[in-house]
């Protein structure tokens, strides 16, 4: 069996470097325009060039999104976009719209084209259609079961790749083509501007009683009727591999470096363990299941992979995430005294017990012995996000290690 690629998201250079360091085979990113996450930081031109160079130096790949559903007004800008991609030379472009596909193929004929889940790829004839036009890879719709993906694999050329989401947020609309955001706020999800109205609270009103709202309830579990659980397939690596999926994709181009590190490291170990020995994978399953929740997340489900989701796949009690651990920062360097230098993300103080998260799967609990601010000198706490901090720990971390603290 072919070992699947592990594909991790990154909203910016920090998350990109984390993905490379913590086990990704490939990273997908957005440029300044043409992607479906305009709210993400995304990459500027020089940053993207540096990311591609870093990835190739480490034998990794970079895929860039161009998966908006384009209008006429977008096409001139799209031409300029693809000319820039021709210079930057990512390993693939991720596309949903046929017009965008034709432009990319014309301007970047040397670059692989991958078909986004936004294109509603639900059957092998659709995959064959895109393959006939020159697509190298197709991302399956989230609405497919493992049996359906296996049937697609059996009916397409062996060199056509299948990419499928294995982890992350689930959209309540078919393959992500949601109109709720556009309707309520004028921000088009298919242009990357989704305001996530599926997470809002809803009520019912009777037409002769304007202003009198009746809560939408189901067995008194709440009113968040569109709020799906997150997808998590860490406990089903063997089934995913046997279905013939070439690339395991993690959702989350809006997420932090902690999310990137946790998902990349956990799926990396699970995949490698399974290919070393199915027994080793089974033995380590409790660790995967424990570790995968140590970042911002909702309750988990298996999506459509084992049949249509029932009422248990939704969260009725609220729209908030669980956050077991808080991200403090990634070690950028160490100074002459062995202190870790990093731009701090959340508050922590001298005396706190924190955790050094290493790419190899080891975690070291340490105490904070002292803190030094570039602007304020020696301090007792670091409450200001993005401040450059020199932190002395009871055990010194290494460059690239991630620092996190468990919620009290």
Explain this structure to me?
The chain is α/β, with parallel strands linked by helices and 408 residues long. It has two domains: 5-174 and 227-313, Alpha-Beta Barrel (TIM Barrel), CATH 3.20.20.70; 325-406, Elongation Factor Tu (Ef-tu), domain 3. Helix content is 28%, strand content 24%. It is built from ten helices and 22 strands. Strands 1-2-3-4-5-6-7-11 form an eight-stranded parallel barrel, surrounded by five helices. Helix 9 (257-276) runs antiparallel to helix 10 (278-291). It is globular, with a radius of gyration of 22 Å. The relative contact order is 0.11. Residues 218-223 have low confidence and may be disordered.
Number of helices: 10
CATH architecture of the largest domain: Alpha-Beta Barrel
Name the structural class.
alpha/beta
The fold-level CATH name of the largest domain is TIM Barrel
How would you name the oligomeric state of the polypeptide chains in this document? single chain
Termini separation: 44 Å
Broad CATH class of the largest domain:
Alpha Beta
Helix content: 25-40%
């Amino acid at each position: 069996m072919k070992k699947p690629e592990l594909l991790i998201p990154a909203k910016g250079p920090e998350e990109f470097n984390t993905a490379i360091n913590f086990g990704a085979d490939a990273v997908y990113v957005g440029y300044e325009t043409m992607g479906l996450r305009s709210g993400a930081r995304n990459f500027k031109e020089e940053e993207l060039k540096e990311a591609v160079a870093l990835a190739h130096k480490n034998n990794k790949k970079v895929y860039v999104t161009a998966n908006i559903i384009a209008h006429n007004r977008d096409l001139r800008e799209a031409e300029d976009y693809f000319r820039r991609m021709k210079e930057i030379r990512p390993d693939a472009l991720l596309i949903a719209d046929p017009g965008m596909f034709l432009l990319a193929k014309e301007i970047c004929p040397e670059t692989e084209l991958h078909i986004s889940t936004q294109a509603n790829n639900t059957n092998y004839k659709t995959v064959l259609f895109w393959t006939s036009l020159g697509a190298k890879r197709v991302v399956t719709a989230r609405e497919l079961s493992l049996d359906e993906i296996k049937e697609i694999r059996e009916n397409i050329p062996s060199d056509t790749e299948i990419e499928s989401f294995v982890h992350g947020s689930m959209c309540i609309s078919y393959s992500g083509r949601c109109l709720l955001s556009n309707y309520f706020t004028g921000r088009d999800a298919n242009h990357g501007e989704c305001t996530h109205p599926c997470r809002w609270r809803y009520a019912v009103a009777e037409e002769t009683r304007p202003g009198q709202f009746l809560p939408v309830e189901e067995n008194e579990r709440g009113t968040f009727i569109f709020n799906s659980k997150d997808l998590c397939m860490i406990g089903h690596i063997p089934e995913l591999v046997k279905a013939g999926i070439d690339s395991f994709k993690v959702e989350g181009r809006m997420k932090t470096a902690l999310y990137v590190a946790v998902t990349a490291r956990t799926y990396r170990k699970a995949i490698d363990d399974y290919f070393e020995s199915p027994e080793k994978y089974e033995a380590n399953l409790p660790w995967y299941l424990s570790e995968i929740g140590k970042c911002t997340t909702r309750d988990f489900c298996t999506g459509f992979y084992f049949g249509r989701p029932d009422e248990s796949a939704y969260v009725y009690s609220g729209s908030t995430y669980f956050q077991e651990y808080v991200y403090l920062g990634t070690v950028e360097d160490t100074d002459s005294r062995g202190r870790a230098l990093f731009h701090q993300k959340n508050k922590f103080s001298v005396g706190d017990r924190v955790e050094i998260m290493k790419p190899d799967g080891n975690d070291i609990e340490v105490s904070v012995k002292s803190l030094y601010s570039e602007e304020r000198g020696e301090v007792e706490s670091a409450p200001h996000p993005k401040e450059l901090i020199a932190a002395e720990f009871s055990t010194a971390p290494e460059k690239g290690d991630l620092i996190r603290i468990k919620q009290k």
